[in-house]
TrEMBL record:
<dbReference type="InterPro" id="IPR051534">
    <property type="entry name" value="CBASS_pafABC_assoc_protein"/>
</dbReference>
<feature type="compositionally biased region" description="Basic and acidic residues">
    <location>
        <begin position="325"/>
        <end position="352"/>
    </location>
</feature>
<feature type="region of interest" description="Disordered">
    <location>
        <begin position="319"/>
        <end position="368"/>
    </location>
</feature>
<feature type="domain" description="HTH deoR-type">
    <location>
        <begin position="2"/>
        <end position="57"/>
    </location>
</feature>
<dbReference type="InterPro" id="IPR036388">
    <property type="entry name" value="WH-like_DNA-bd_sf"/>
</dbReference>
<dbReference type="InterPro" id="IPR013196">
    <property type="entry name" value="HTH_11"/>
</dbReference>
<dbReference type="InterPro" id="IPR028349">
    <property type="entry name" value="PafC-like"/>
</dbReference>
<dbReference type="InterPro" id="IPR036390">
    <property type="entry name" value="WH_DNA-bd_sf"/>
</dbReference>
<dbReference type="InterPro" id="IPR026881">
    <property type="entry name" value="WYL_dom"/>
</dbReference>
<dbReference type="GO" id="GO:0003700">
    <property type="term" value="F:DNA-binding transcription factor activity"/>
</dbReference>
<keyword id="KW-0805">Transcription regulation</keyword>
<protein>
    <submittedName>
        <fullName>WYL domain-containing protein</fullName>
    </submittedName>
</protein>
<dbReference type="Pfam" id="PF13280">
    <property type="entry name" value="WYL"/>
</dbReference>
<dbReference type="Pfam" id="PF08279">
    <property type="entry name" value="HTH_11"/>
</dbReference>
<keyword id="KW-0804">Transcription</keyword>
<dbReference type="InterPro" id="IPR001034">
    <property type="entry name" value="DeoR_HTH"/>
</dbReference>
Amino acid sequence: MRADRLLSILLLLQTRARVPAAELARRLEVSVRTVYRDVEALSTAGVPVYAERGRRGGIALLPGYRTDVSGLTADEARALFVLTAQGTHAALGLDGALGTALRKVMAALPAPHRPAAELTSRRVLVDPDRWLGGPRPEVDVAALLEAVLADRRLRLRYRPSGSPAPRRFTVDPYGLVVKAGIWYLVADHRAAPRLFRADRMAAVSTAVEPVRRRPGVELAEVWEELRRRVEERPTPLTVRTRVHRSRLDLFLRISGSSVAALPEGDGRAEGPEWVPVELRYQELGAVHQLLQFGTRVVVDAPPEARRLLARTAAEIAAGYDGDEPERADGERADGERADGEPSDGERAHGERAGAVSPAAGSTVPGPR
């Protein structure tokens, strides 16, 4: 551990002209006294390091003591600092190692490239998670990675999609892939490539037998084959819809994977109030997702999709038909009191808007 700490101090000092002892202690999670002992050890080993006291003091190296990496261009230096989201490394237990590695690279960069590389790391952030992804089950990806790196077969208790209970699989792993924040195990099952979602694994254990991968086949090749199968599988149901322009952006974000083709001009420029969008689904029941857009999405075809949505909407309406449930304070969910009087909130809203009761002869404007 001390050897790693001494190397970290040396690399930090190469990156900056002078570093306060308190900052070194905070970064390395040790005491200031330990930092001074480590600096003394570096000096004894022949490293030209010294401590400068005072408000502007700190630990520093003699000018010119640098380790250079030749051959790196400015763009290559920037590329090293645009890696991936911190969350990916944290899931693998490598977030600490990432910080250390970047410090080492920064110290080894040619001096003219350091400012651009450091600025890039502060100005570019990659977040692999999708918007509105929702909570996900906890997955011990670090343990799964250790099992994969053991180069032995894996025994899984795994719940396939649509299955109520886990099943047992013995697989030959190629590696792990994270896509849109979801981790997958890529493996052969009975010599055929398969994808296993990490959050559906009930248990993982390492077998004694060595892994039996197909000769000459690598992870990237198997992943490309599996990804293509998922994206190119036939979609037997085509649904033609009209989307109100006010909801088009949201509709395309939520239904993006089902959109067969974007409307002309991406459908987002000024144009008709209703925009035609064609969708592709694996099964008829998937059209239920369109109900979340209410009257802002209209299904034109096929007829069976229209009938299904009409039947479902009628069932939903029937579930809300009848008297409103009464709350403990005597006010119903629609804002009217059980005794027929308007609620305090309704009365206040009417007073602010200058509203007059329709019973008093006023006219209520309809929707524009």
